[in-house]
Amino acid sequence: MIRDEVIVNGLNLPRMGKKKGEKFYPWQGAKSPFSHKNFLQIIEVQKDLNNMNLRALNALNNGASSLLIKINNSEDILIVLKDIRLDICPIHILGGDQEKVSKAIDSLPDSQKPEEWHGSISTRNFINEFDHIPRWQNRDKKFSSQKTTLPSNVRTICTNTKNISSTNCTDKVAFSIYNLAVQLNSAGWDNSKRCIVFLEAQENYLETIAMIQAIRILWNSYLEENGKSDTTLWICGETQDKKFKKNPPEKLVGRSLEAQSLWLGGCDEIIIHPVAESTEAEQWARDQFLILAYETKLSGHKDVLKGSYLLDSWSEKIISEAENKIDLWLENSSLIMNKIK
């Protein structure tokens, strides 16, 4: 049965029901943790901590709605987060020591609602698929008791597609799913509610959308297999981060299209990297997100491209190829762990 789906700009896309017995269900992947989308501002902490705090507050007052804070010293987080409400603003922390960061946040004033912290915490990113399997196990077991004291929506099982050198979207999907599965096989699947994926947009607009959907759909199959089908998956997407010295405003259109593909694919939070090294360019990036959110009317619709034959078949192909890679990697990781034991 075929019927038309009318999307925001008036384009009619035909929708066709799947034949009985087919396993692929487009746009029915792991659920998002919330219905709205956030602009994620990166704060790379430097020596002047008070200035870092001012930068964070300025970003939140001018279009940003969540923060990714990169730190070296765990205690720095106390100054950087001054006057920021953790029940309103998602906070992602990269670097430092997990236990020390957790304790530092817990010591924030009650007015900042530290008990309602939501976001993620990660101290390191693993680059090679196999070399760090023992470190995954040791880290997860050591931190497992700490996880139970963290607020329920702080994600500690993290993966990032930038940590694999391949630019192939299938490899990125496979690496993301494999990475999460290995950590949960160690920490236990009850921690699946702690999962978060960070990914970078592809150069191809539609490929980015298909890649994100493939991650959600494939991860949902793992959740169902382990009895966790109601668990959400938090996805943060970022544009390319190339800076331009010559005529940076001319590059805004391309950067906007990358952000739009991340939005349409189903990312929960979006990082739009500035096209130049300047405070003006940083504000351009936030303005680009606000345009997406409030002037394109995308925020009032879910799964805008649902029903596209091209995207459905593209996601299905990515999933099929990624599953083969994941099965091979999991088999190899099992062999490695048996040798270690």
Would you give an account of this structure?
With 341 residues, the protein is α/β, with parallel strands linked by helices. The protein has a domain at 33-123: TIM Barrel (Alpha-Beta Barrel), CATH 3.20.20. The chain contains nine helices and eleven strands. It has helices spanning 49-61, 77-80, 98-106, 133-147, 169-187, 205-225, 252-265, 279-294, 309-340; strands at residues 2-6, 12-16, 38-44, 66-70, 91-94, 119-122, 154-155, 157-160, 195-200, 234-238, 269-271. The strands form two sheets. Strands 7-6-5-4-3-11-10-9-8 form a nine-stranded parallel β-sheet. It has a two-stranded antiparallel ribbon with strand order 1-2. Strand 8, helix 5 and strand 9 form a beta-alpha-beta unit. Helix 4 (133-147) crosses helix 5 (169-187). The N and C termini lie far apart (55 Å).
Provide the fold topology:
Blueprint: E1 2-6, E2 12-16, E3 38-44, H1 49-61, E4 66-70, H2 77-80, E5 91-94, H3 98-106, E6 119-122, H4 133-147, E7 154-155, E8 157-160, H5 169-187, E9 195-200, H6 205-225, E10 234-238, H7 252-265, E11 269-271, H8 279-294, H9 309-340
Parallel strand pairs: 3-4, 3-11, 4-5, 5-6, 6-7, 8-9, 9-10, 10-11
Antiparallel strand pairs: 1-2
Helix pairs in contact: 4-5, 5-6, 5-9, 6-7, 6-9, 7-8
CATH class of the domain at 33-123: Alpha Beta
Rg calc: 20 Å
Task: Let me know the CATH homologous superfamily of the domain at 33-123.
Answer: Enolase-like C-terminal domain
Major β-sheet strand ordering: 7-6-5-4-3-11-10-9-8
Task: Assign the CATH architecture of the domain at 33-123.
Answer: Alpha-Beta Barrel
Low-confidence blocks of residues: 125-134, 143-147, 335-341
How much of the sequence lies in strands comes to 5-15%
Would you tell me which CATH topology of the domain at 33-123 applies?
TIM Barrel
Q: Any idea what the shape is?
A: globular
* Number of DSSP-assigned strands: 11
Main beta-sheet annotation: 9 strands, parallel
Give the number of helices: 9
As a percent range, the share of helical residues equals 40-55%
Task: Write down the secondary-structure element order.
Answer: EEEHEHEHEHEEHEHEHEHH
Distance between the termini: 55 Å
Which whole number gives the mean pLDDT?
Answer: 85
Estimated structural class: alpha/beta
